[in-house]
């Protein structure tokens, strides 16, 4: 009896309690728990190990919250953390605990490992920065579920596999950067549906020797399209002419064949055209001379032919003109002299004929002039001596005659002068440059100690070998080959920089260190000095060595700015060999001309009394040729 009476009461009380409890639970989940979940997830991530007062988390560096105190931004890259030193583990952040996160920037943090598929739980995310995070594995398909993303940067990692076609679902994307990640497979055509894209960067990958997808013509908002060194084979689609907002078109270092479509001339906003290092044939379409905003015009290392018409006069903003290593013919047009913004002219390794226009003296901004290996004749115009900014003049391997204008001796910034293999006669002018370290003259003079050029007269310090002293110089055409290698690198640095800096906001820094040695590096803050390299490698300790070869050893070094680079250090004995200069020069030339698909980016170089080295982008399984 009693039990039959009490049971309903007990049951009623029980169920009432349960209802109350569940209401309370509901209320607490709605009011407090999300924030508590965030707090808990932050603590558990261990990413802010130096910070303990969780109630102040919205003030922790790199964290921003909304008015309700929920986290909206995590920007570790710039928050003063030792992001590159500490190994944060990606998976330790419980993504589902951050329902309001809009910005997640972990660039330059050494996360390691995969991108966890759970990242798709961050459904409000608009900005995901994972550049240089030491990531590996494949890209999770779930990335395609982050449909609010506007900015996605996974550049400079060692990802495997292909681009998930699911990325084509990220309709709001404005910027997609997957460059230098080692991706393979084809470029998914689904990317051609992302019509809000303004920046698409896929350089430095190993796509399957396929073409540029035809439907990229639909990406009409594009401002930047970078598909350099990524294994593209096939023609330039004429449809790219529809991308009229394009400012940068980077297609260098592929196997692009066929001719340049005339439609490229419709890209009236184009500032930079990088087509060098491909297999293009035919002549330059006349429409390209309508690109009046063009600053960089790089067509080097192709199989282009034809001559350069008067129309080039329209390219009033041109700074860089590189046509090297093609089959161009005809005269150098005089109208080139009206392009007074030109800083760099390299039209070497072609079949240009006629003489060097004396009006080149009007190109007052010129600092690099290479006309080497053409069919040029006549004399060297003395007006070249007016070009005070010149640092490099290479007129070698032509049929120039007459004497060397003495005005060349007044070019105080000139650091590289090559006039070899011409029919020049007369005297070598007094060179006023003070930084000449090695002079290698073809007819037997070579290797001068560094300081003996200060205040020198002519090339008198030349040590004439017995072989040439027997020759009658007055009858023999004067073959002069002057290599001034120490500072040629600063000139080549300009070339490198121009070629390499386009897709990164790089700053050039050439630093004179205490010892007066030159250290130059790009993409960093310009403050990297020899000492930093020594510190990073513990004076080239062999523990940091990752390869040894023909004329150098390769080291892995982490710079103070956090970047990991590869250093190719030249064997000292090699550095003292006169032939070293040539191979070093060839190497830089090779790297700057980017003929090769496996080549890695050259960031800079250091020349120091004790050692000389090149600084490359570090790639986990990169090929660092040491021969
Ligand atoms: C944590 O921060 C809160 C709010 O600023 C402050 O009131 C509290 O005293 C701090 N606790 C500790 C242990 O510092
Ligand atoms: C970074 O790490 C170094 C030691 O590796 C430490 O001395 C320094 O305090 C750390 N800096 C910050 C901001 O945590
Ligand atoms: C993406 O979201 C859909 C539905 O929200 C889900 O069914 C699917 O499994 C998700 N895909 C991935 C790869 O996470
Ligand atoms: C990737 O590309 C975007 C868009 O051009 C750019 O803002 C970003 O800085 C690039 N990332 C790196 C690491 O250069
Ligand atoms: C995109 O390009 C493809 C092929 O180039 C074309 O068939 C299609 O109609 C285009 N789509 C839009 C929306 O313009
Ligand atoms: C471009 O190269 C591909 C692959 O070698 C070849 O099939 C195609 O015919 C070439 N196109 C032209 C225009 O030369
Ligand atoms: C260059 O542009 C002008 C007007 O913008 C146009 O009339 C002309 O046909 C174009 N020339 C070429 C060669 O495309
Ligand atoms: C230039 O043309 C010649 C003959 O037509 C050819 O043998 C050579 O390979 C071409 N050079 C380049 C760089 O295309
Ligand atoms: C070079 O400049 C001079 C003086 O400024 C001018 O008279 C001459 O026409 C210019 N030459 C060319 C080819 O533009
Ligand atoms: C230079 O060569 C040209 C022919 O190419 C000739 O007319 C001229 O006289 C030569 N000048 C000198 C100084 O030898
Ligand atoms: C070189 O410069 C000096 C001083 O500026 C000047 O006196 C001399 O005439 C110049 N020489 C030539 C060949 O232009």
From TrEMBL:
Compartments, record wording: Membrane
InterPro entries for the chain: At_inactive_RLKs (IPR050994), Kinase-like_dom_sf (IPR011009), Leu-rich_rpt (IPR001611), Leu-rich_rpt_typical-subtyp (IPR003591), LRR_dom_sf (IPR032675), LRR_R13L4/SHOC2-like (IPR055414), Prot_kinase_dom (IPR000719), Protein_kinase_ATP_BS (IPR017441)
A Pfam entry, by short name: LRR_14
Residues annotated as binding ATP: 568
Record-annotated Protein kinase domain positions: 540-627
Protein species of origin: Hibiscus sabdariffa (roselle)
Main location: membrane
Transmembrane segment boundaries: 478-500
Keyword field contains Calcium: no
Keywords: ATP-binding, Leucine-rich repeat, Membrane, Nucleotide-binding, Repeat, Signal, Transmembrane, Transmembrane helix
Protein name per Swiss-Prot or TrEMBL: Protein kinase domain-containing protein
Signal sequence region: 1-24
């Amino acid at each position: 009896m009693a039990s039959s009476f009490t049971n309903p009461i007990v049951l009623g009380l029980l169920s009432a309690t349960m209802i109350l409890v569940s209401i309370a639970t509901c209320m607490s989940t709605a009011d407090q728990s999300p924030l508590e979940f965030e707090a808990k997830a932050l603590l558990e991530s261990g990413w802010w190990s130096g910070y303990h007062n969780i109630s102040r988390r919205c003030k922790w560096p790199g964290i921003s919250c909304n008015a309700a105190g929920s986290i909206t931004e995590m920007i570790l890259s710039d928050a003063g953390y030792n992001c590159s030193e500490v190994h944060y583990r990606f998976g330790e952040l419980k993504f589902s605990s951050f329902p309001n996160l809009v910005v997640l920037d972990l660039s330059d943090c050494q996360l390691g490992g995969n991108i966890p598929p759970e990242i798709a739980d961050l459904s409000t995310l608009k900005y995901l920065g994972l550049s240089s995070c030491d990531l590996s594995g494949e890209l999770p398909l779930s990335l395609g579920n982050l449909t609010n993303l506007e900015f996605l940067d996974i550049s400079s990692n060692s990802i495997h596999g292909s681009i998930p076609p699911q990325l084509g679902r990220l309709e709001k994307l404005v910027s997609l950067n997957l460059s230098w990640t080692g991706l393979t497979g084809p470029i998914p055509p689904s990317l051609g549906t992302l019509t809000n894209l303004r920046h698409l960067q896929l350089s430095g990958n190993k796509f399957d020797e396929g073409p540029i997808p035809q439907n990229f013509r639909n990406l009409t908002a594009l401002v930047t399209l970078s598909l350099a060194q990524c294994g593209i084979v096939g023609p330039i689609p004429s449809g790219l002419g529809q991308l009229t907002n394009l400012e940068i078109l980077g297609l260098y270092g592929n196997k692009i064949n066929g001719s340049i479509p005339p439609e490229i001339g419709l890209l009236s906003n184009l500032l930079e055209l990088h087509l060098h290092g491909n297999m293009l044939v035919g002549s330059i379409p006349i429409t390209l001379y309508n690109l009046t905003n063009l600053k960089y015009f790089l067509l080097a290392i192709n199989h282009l032919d034809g001559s350069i018409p008067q129309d080039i006069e329209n390219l009033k903003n041109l700074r860089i003109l590189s046509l090297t290593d093609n089959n161009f013919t005809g005269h150098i047009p005089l109208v080139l002299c009206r392009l007074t913004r030109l800083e760099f002219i390299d039209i070497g390794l072609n079949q240009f004929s006629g003489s060097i226009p004396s009006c080149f003296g009007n190109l007052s901004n010129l600092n690099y002039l290479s006309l080497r290996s053409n069919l040029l004749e006549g004399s060297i115009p003395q007006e070249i001596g007016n070009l005070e900014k010149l640092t490099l003049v290479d007129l070698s391997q032509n049929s120039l005659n007459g004497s060397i204008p003495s005005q060349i001796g007044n070019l105080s910034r000139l650091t590289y002068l090559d006039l070899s293999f011409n029919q020049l006669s007369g005297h070598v002018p007094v060179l006023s440059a003070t930084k000449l370290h090695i002079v290698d003259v073809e007819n037997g003079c070579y290797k001068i100690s560094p300081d003996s050029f200060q205040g020198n007269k002519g090339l008198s310090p030349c040590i004439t070998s017995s072989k040439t002293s027997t020759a009658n110089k007055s009858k023999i055409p004067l073959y002069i080959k002057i290599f001034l290698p120490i500072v040629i690198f600063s000139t080549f640095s300009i070339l490198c920089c121009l070629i390499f800096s386009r897709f990164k906001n790089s700053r050039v820094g050439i630093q004179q260190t205490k010892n007066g040695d030159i250290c130059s590096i790009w993409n960093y803050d310009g403050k990297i000095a020899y000492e930093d390299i020594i510190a990073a490698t513990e004076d080239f300790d062999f523990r940091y060595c990752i390869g040894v070869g023909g004329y150098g050893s390769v080291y892995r070094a982490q710079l103070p700015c956090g970047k990991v680079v590869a250093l190719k250090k030249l064997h000292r004995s090699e550095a003292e060999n006169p032939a070293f200069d040539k191979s070093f020069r060839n190497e830089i030339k090779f790297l700057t001309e980017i003929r090769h698909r496996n080549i890695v980016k050259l960031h800079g170089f250091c020349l120091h009394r004790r050692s000389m080295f090149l600084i490359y982008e570090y790639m986990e399984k990169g090929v660092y040729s040491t021969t």
